[in-house]
Automatic annotation (TrEMBL):
Name of the molecule in the record: Unannotated protein
Residue ranges occupied by any ABC transporter domain in the UniProt entry: 1-210
Keyword Acetylation: no
Keywords: ATP-binding, Nucleotide-binding
GO terms of molecular function: ATP binding; ATP hydrolysis activity
Species of the source: freshwater metagenome
Record flagged with keyword ATP-binding: yes
Pfam families: ABC_tran
Length: 225
C-alpha cells in the first residue's frame, strides 16, 4: 500500500506479468521474467482490477464472465465448456454471494456485485497467486464490509492461493493478512510481517502526514493527528 504515485500500479503489473521491470530482475512464482513464457505463467495467476472490468462485455452474463477465465478471454465466443467448468464457476459465484446473479448482465449490476464477480473470475482457473487491485474501491460501506468478510475467509483458508492486495486504505485490509509492503515515490518504506510494517511511524512516513494507527479485532484503522 501507499499513496498515489508510490508505484503500486507498476508493481502489480509486473506481478501479473503484464510488463517487465526496466531495471533489475523480477521473479513471479519462482519464474524469472524474461526467461519464461509469460502466457503460460499467466494461467497460474488470477487478477481482479479496474482495467479488467473495462474489457468485460456489458451484455455478458455473470456465469460466462467467470467461466471464460478458463480460456483467459473476457467474452464468450467459440470456446467449449463442460459441466465441470459450469459447476466450478457456480461454486465461485456462490463463494462470493452472487450465485443469484448468474444470468444477469454484467453491465446491469451494482459496483459491489461486479467486484465480487471479478474475484470469482480470478479464482476460476485455480491460480497459485491471486492479485486484487483495490477490490474495495468505489464500494459503499455495506458492500465493502461484505467483501472484506469474504476476503478474510479466503485469507484464512489453507487451500486458498497466496493473495496480493493493493489498497490506499488500511481499513480495507482483510483480517488474516500476514505481510505488508509500504511504498512511497517508487521506494520501499517498510516490508515484512504486517504487525511490524503497519506502525504509526511507517504509515506517517509513507503518506507524509502524522497518522495514528490502531489495530482492533483483526482490522486496521487510521486517523490524522
Amino acid at each position: 500500500m501507499g499513496p498515489n504515485g508510490a508505484g503500486k500500479t507498476s508493481l502489480i503489473a509486473i506481478a501479473a506479468t503484464l510488463i517487465h521491470p526496466t531495471k533489475g530482475q523480477a521473479r513471479v512464482l519462482d519464474e524469472l521474467l524474461g526467461r519464461v513464457d509469460v502466457f503460460e505463467l499467466r494461467h497460474r495467476i488470477g487478477l481482479s482490477s479496474a482495467a479488467l472490468t473495462d474489457r468485460i462485455p456489458p451484455d455478458e452474463c455473470a456465469l460466462d464472465v467467470v467461466m471464460t477465465a478458463s480460456w483467459a478471454v473476457t467474452g464468450r465466443w467459440q470456446e467449449v465448456y463442460d459441466l465441470w467448468d459450469e459447476s466450478r464457476a457456480l461454486g465461485m459465484l456462490s463463494l462470493f454471494g452472487v450465485s443469484q446473479n448468474k444470468d444477469q448482465k454484467f453491465g446491469s449490476m451494482s459496483e459491489g456485485e461486479r467486484k465480487r464477480i471479478q474475484i470469482a473470475r480470478a479464482l476460476m482457473p485455480d491460480p497459485e497467486l491471486l492479485i486484487l487491485d483495490e477490490p474495495a474501491a468505489g464500494l459503499d460501506l455495506g458492500a465493502r464490509e461484505d467483501l472484506l468478510t469474504r476476503l478474510s475467509g479466503l485469507a484464512l483458508d489453507p487451500a486458498a492461493p497466496t493473495s496480493l492486495l493493493v489498497t490506499h486504505h488500511v481499513e480495507e485490509i482483510p483480517s488474516g493478512t500476514t505481510h505488508a509492503l509500504l511504498l512511497r515515490d517508487g521506494g520501499v518504506v517498510a516490508a515484512g510481517p504486517i504487525n511490524e510494517v503497519l506502525t504509526s511511524a511507517n504509515i506517517s512516513q509513507a503518506f507524509g502526514l502524522t497518522i495514528d494507527l490502531s489495530h482492533e479485532n483483526g482490522r486496521w484503522f487510521a486517523r490524522a493527528i
